[in-house]
Every structure is written in structure tokens, then in C-alpha cells.
Design goal:
With 235 residues, the protein is mainly beta. 7% of the residues lie in helices and 37% in strands. A five-stranded antiparallel β-sheet has the order 5-4-7-8-9, with no helix packed on it. The two termini are 34 Å apart.
Length: 235
Amino acid sequence: MINKTKRLVVPRVTKIPRKNFFWGATANPGRHSKESSVALLTVLRDYLRLGDKEREVTRMLNSGFIKIDGKVVKNRKTAVGFMDVITVVPTSEHFRVLYDKKGRLIVNKEDEKNSNLKPMKVFNKITTVSGKTQLILHDGQNFITEDSSISTGDVLIMSVPEKKIQHIIKMQPGNKAFLTGGAHVGSIGTIKKVEVKESSKSNLVHFEEDFTTVADYTFMIAGPKYSYEIPRGEQ
């Protein structure tokens, strides 16, 4: 199995110097796709600088000092992606994985009050034989619910690691969204109109800030009953 790759060809979402070193870490296939994730080793060593060398990070992981979404992770090649929460146990620090203005994955410090919450976008839903609804979420996870009112494009605010729905933010006019791609990636806008396409083309979302993007890039963060505050820091 290939466990590393040349830094010059690592996924563009990875924010690391390309020419300082020859090799970079490769994330294992998992919940996040290779193109939309960063290896946990890269996050801990190159982003958070918790160790200068791979063996220092490996020792930290083997000691159970790192959690992702509330669960201890020991594999340094674990794929880390958008909206994951990384917890450093010894210091009780929490970090949220986000996109910056150039579409690269970054980590910003997360407040303790939001460290056990994870916004998850519904990419697709299927009705099971038993009549329940199976939701396919943006990070590759599946979730079974009896709430048939949840639609594709909605964002579930879920407690982790329990995976219990705390709030639902609908993709509808008046609600706010964080942009995960396109020319306005990393920005926040208020939805003015959702244009539903009858063909196989993606729906369009028009914003009050006078720009339009596809629904795939629209990640809801605020509605009338709940608002998730994006942690500020590096952009």
C-alpha cells in the first residue's frame, strides 16, 4: 500500500509548502474522499505543529491523545475533512476543519461549547424497506432516521460521538450558508432564492450578496431557530 506521495502532487486542498520537502503523507480511503481531505499526520505536524517528526506524532496518537469527532484515533493516515473536530486531549483544545478563501483546508480553534457538535450536510436520502429514511451525509457517513421532512441540502447539527440530531437547518431563503467551493469559497452569504432545475443539472442558489453558486457548494449554517458560528482565525 502506498503510504506517501510527492508533495508537489498532494491534493490541492492541503495547505503545506510544496517544495520544502519531497514527500507528503497520503490519507487512507475513508469517509472523506482523497481529493477533499488531509492526512491526520499532516494536520498535527504541519498545521498544528504538535511534533517536528512523524515518530513524535505517532507516539502522540498511540497514547490516545487525539480525538476526531469525539473518538480516539490512532492511525496517522486517517482522512480529515470539512467540519471535522480535532481534539488534543492533554491541552483540552479543539479545532474545526474549514475551507479558506482559496479552497484549502485549514484548522481554526473551536469553542468548547461547540466542540461536541458537528454540522453535517445531507447529500442524498433513501427510503429503506422498513419505511425509515437513510441519509447520506457530506463526510460519507450514513444515518437512519424516522424524520421524513429532512431534504437533500439540509444541514443537521449533530452531537458527536452520539450522532443525535440537535437542530436542522433547511436550504431556504433567509437562511445563511458557508460556501465550500466556487469563486466565493470560504465566504458566508444569505440565501435569496433557490432555483430548482428540472434537468440533471445542479440547482442554483442566489444570494442577497449578489452572487450565485450551485447547491453543492452551499453549506447551511444558520436559520430562524439555530445559528452555528464559524470559528474565526486563519482565512
